[in-house]
Amino acid sequence: MRKYCVVVGLMLLTAGVALSQEFPKVETSPAFMFIRSSPNLDHSFFIVPPGGGPPVQVTGGNSFNCAGGGGTIALNLTSLLGIAADLGGCRFFGNTIGLGNTITGNQFTYLFGPRITIRSASAFQPFFELNFGGDRLSASCKSGANTCLTAVGSGTYSKNAFAMTVGGGFDIKVNKKFSIRPVQAEYLYTRFGNSCALSVCNNNNNQNSFRLKSGIVIGWGGSASK
Known about the structure:
- The chain is mainly beta.
- The protein has 1 helix and 11 strands, in the order H-E-E-E-E-E-E-E-E-E-E-E.
- The protein has one domain: Beta Barrel (Porin).
């Protein structure tokens, strides 16, 4: 009887370990993306007054709203640790800098890094990640009655910069193949620098932004294929 209990206990322990190791080898996640940025770059816009004269700096908000989409591909090394590649693009909307001037453009992020996922028997699965990579920003100023200029005399700005995100979210499992990702919230740090030589420029080399994502998760291989 004692030997029987030992065997049953070992079987239950083995089953528990196997269950804890069930996870998809690869996860893809198409998602909606929203970024709230405060660039403070050297493309601070100026207005040429009607009738000529030296450009004057425009007053107004200096934060951009950007909405779009992207996707993540994650390779799960274990049930806890994975490596993710995150790509996303968005377009600016509803951004003005005073006197009827509108900022248009787009932003593209390409990031890579480790991810920790807390998996259990529950459908609720939180995760945390840290990513490093780059950010491509292209912006232009459009004006009706006036002319938009940057400090270098152009109405457009385009540049690549170092980027980093840190944050997390949670998934809700629907079945072994699909999950819903209601929210993924992250701090987005970029370093575009500021080469503006004018005294009116703020010379801020770092930008602090907020990124929000929401979508679905599709599992491939591993337990998801069973």
